C-alpha cells in the first residue's frame, strides 16, 4: 500500500513517541528510546497503528519519518521493532544498517530497562 502523505507526524522525544495524526486523531505510533552517548541512535521498539487506520501506509510513513529524524540528528536507527526492521530491509536506500555493536547495546539496554518498551 502506498504511504499516506496526508498524515501529520509529531515527535515527542521526552515520551519517546513518534505519532501520526489523521484528521487530528492519533492513528499510529512508534515507541522508541535514545541510545546514549550523543548523537545517540534512535531505537525503534514498537510500531502500532490503530485498527481503523490500518492499510493506509501510516506505519511506513512513521518509519520513514523516524529514519529522517535520525539522519537530521546525525545518528543511526536501531530497528528492534519487527515492523521497522522489515521496512528497513525493503528500503535500504533510506534505512542504513546500524553497526552491530549498537544493536547489541540497544538490546542490552532494553533488557535491563523493560520500562523503555
UniProtKB/TrEMBL annotation:
Q: Where is the composition biased (Basic and acidic residues)?
A: 101-117
Ranges for domain N-acetyltransferase: 1-117, 10-99
Q: Which domain of life is it from?
A: Bacteria
* CDD domains reported for this sequence: NAT_SF
Recorded hits in Gene3D superfamilies, A to Z, give: 3.40.630.30
Q: Where is this region: Disordered?
A: 92-117
Which InterPro entries does the entry mention? Acyl_CoA_acyltransferase, Gcn5-rel_NAT, GNAT_dom, GNAT_YJDJ
Query: PROSITE patterns annotated for this entry?
Result: GNAT (PS51186), GNAT_YJDJ (PS51729)
Per its record, how is this protein called by name? N-acetyltransferase
Phylogenetic classification of the source organism: Bacteria, Bacillati, Actinomycetota, Actinomycetes, Kitasatosporales
Amino acid at each position: 500500500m502506498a504511504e499516506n502523505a496526508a498524515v501529520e507526524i509529531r515527535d515527542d522525544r521526552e515520551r519517546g513517541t513518534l505519532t501520526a495524526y489523521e484528521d487530528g486523531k492519533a492513528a499510529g505510533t512508534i515507541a522508541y528510546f535514545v541510545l546514549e552517548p550523543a548523537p545517540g541512535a534512535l531505537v525503534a521498539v514498537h510500531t502500532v497503528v490503530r485498527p481503523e487506520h490500518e492499510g493506509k501506509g501510516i506505519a511506513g510513513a512513521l518509519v520513514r519519518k523516524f529514519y529522517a529524524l535520525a539522519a537530521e540528528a546525525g545518528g543511526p536507527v536501531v530497528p528492534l521493532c519487527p515492523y521497522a526492521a522489515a521496512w528497513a530491509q525493503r528500503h535500504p536506500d533510506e534505512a542504513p544498517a546500524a553497526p552491530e555493536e549498537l544493536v547489541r547495546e540497544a538490546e542490552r539496554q532494553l533488557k535491563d530497562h523493560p520500562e523503555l518498551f
